[in-house]
From TrEMBL:
GO terms for molecular function: glycosyltransferase activity. The keyword Lipid metabolism does not apply. Residues 74-159 form the Glycosyltransferase subfamily 4-like N-terminal domain. The keyword Transferase applies. CDD domains: GT4_MtfB-like. Keywords: Transferase. This is Glycosyltransferase involved in cell wall biosynthesis.
Length: 359
């Protein structure tokens, strides 16, 4: 079976969820017998890597004349991007989340109006032209069906998996990495996904301040920083003398992130909304007690192994942070075993089943 995956989001600065998905699913599919996988790109975004003749090409995609006659894919797989214009292929779309379209999150202004309209049209096109849709969680599937007219039986839930495996041994530079952020082993809480309104960073900081844990434990945010949210946070940190208690790493390598997971005291992720929430599984895989939000896909992914809190309520987040210290070790061990069930090999197997369902 020949598969073409639309990979333009790999040009995004700083790898986040969807680019990681593309790389991981491509590798996993290529390990399967009788599966061939290629990536297609937006030529405008990658023209600096192409010969001059392609720099002058104005086609959005590698078109059917240039590509399909040689590779002849059976499946065209789109990931939050328009379908490739290839004749004779079945169209599959993966949907990661619909947060920007949900009315309950309108007040948070997760994205510009232009982005919302563009994404809405894309999801409309999926409803009209997709032979099947992959949703990364039941929550995402339910959200899509609330908004678009599409056969329920043609939407398949395929859970995601962690991007990297837990570190089994100590790295030579592990202490140097921790020292670079002025933290030590198990003296900090970790939150992954960056600083943004959607990740509920401000309420987490408020909850951290209310919990009293700052006396012995720091709070580390790993990932992209949205400056508009950061400006509000900086004022709060200064007013509450928290500037030395909260650490922001911005983008970091997978190796550095692995070290932060491995040495954290617990994982805090009271996000407003997740289409899946890979960091929840990553933290469990490292044997960390996990606190997360009680809405979106987070409860589905946590599956009873995390402490759930109302992300709108800093006081409840604070109580949750304190309660993490009382979670039984056996429950944390069970969560670690549960996390082992999320692998990219399994994602690939389930994805192939979706491919076969349309052939």
């Amino acid at each position: 079976m020949k598969i073409i995956i639309e990979g333009s989001t790999l040009s995004t600065k700083g790898f986040t969820g969807i680019p990681h998905y593309i790389i991981s699913i491509q590798k996993a599919l290529k390990n399967k017998h009788n599966i061939e996988v290629e990536l297609a790109f937006n030529l405008k975004k990658i023209n600096k890597f192409k010969p001059e003749v392609l720099k002058k090409t104005h086609f959005w995609y590698v078109g059917s004349i240039l590509f399909s006659r040689t590779f002849k894919p059976a499946i065209s797989h789109s990931l939050h991007t328009p379908f490739l214009k290839l004749r004779g292929t079945k169209k599959i779309a993966t949907i990661h989340d619909l947060a920007v379209h949900l009315p309950e999150f309108a007040e948070f202004n997760f994205a510009s109006k232009y982005f919302q309209e563009k994404r809405y049209k894309l999801f409309q096109d999926f409803a009209k032209n997709a032979d099947a849709i992959i949703a990364v969680s039941q929550a995402t599937k339910d959200d899509y069906l609330k908004m678009f007219d599409y056969p329920e039986e043609k939407i398949h839930v395929v859970h995601l998996a962690p991007v990297f495996k837990p570190l089994e041994t100590k790295l030579d530079n592990e202490n140097d990495i921790l020292n670079s952020f002025s933290i030590g082993k198990e003296n900090y809480f970790l939150s992954v996904g960056g600083v943004s309104k959607r990740k509920n960073s401000f309420n987490l900081i408020k909850g951290f301040a209310l919990s009293g844990e700052r006396k012995t434990t720091k709070l580390v945010f790993a990932g992209k920083i949205v400056e508009s949210e950061m400006e509000i946070i900086k004022v709060f940190l200064k007013e509450h003398d928290l500037e030395n208690d909260v650490v922001f790493t911005s983008y970091i390598s997978d190796e550095t992130l692995s070290v932060l997971y491995k040495n954290a005291k617990a994982f805090l992720f009271p996000t407003y909304y997740e289409g899946f929430g890979i960091p929840i599984i990553e933290a469990m895989a490292y044997g960390l007690p996990v606190l997360t939000g009680n809405i979106g896909a987070a409860p589905e992914v946590a599956n009873g192994y995390a402490l759930l809190v109302d992300p709108h309520n800093p006081e409840e987040i604070a109580r949750g942070i304190v309660d993490l210290g009382n979670i039984e070790k056996d429950k944390v061990k069970l969560a670690k075993e549960y996390a082992k069930g999320f692998t990219w090999d399994k994602v690939a197997e389930e994805t192939i089943k979706v491919y076969n369902s349309v052939l």
